[in-house]
Amino acid sequence: LRQGANVNFVSRDSDGGWRMRTYERGVEGETLACGTGAVATAVLMDAWGISPGGISLRTQSGRTLSVRLRREGDAWLPSLSGEGRLVFEGRFAEV
Question: How do residues 24-41 score in pLDDT, each as one tens digit?
Fold first, then answer.
């Protein structure tokens, strides 16, 4: 059984926007961004009435992840957008 947790910290930026910092288990430290964390943050911010319908979050990478939310009954239907980059390429050897 693996122990630990992913944690997101959200705060206001000096320009009035939102900033998110993420610490992930497995990495055991801060990561540059986390899409799952951004969606979870958006759902909580909506549920708390802080940012209804979605949010844009500036991540530690300096890039922004934007989450739009809509609901159908009890289901959240998120849409995540942001910059994607290829940061590694690898190949498996034949087995």
Answer: 888 788 888 999 999 999
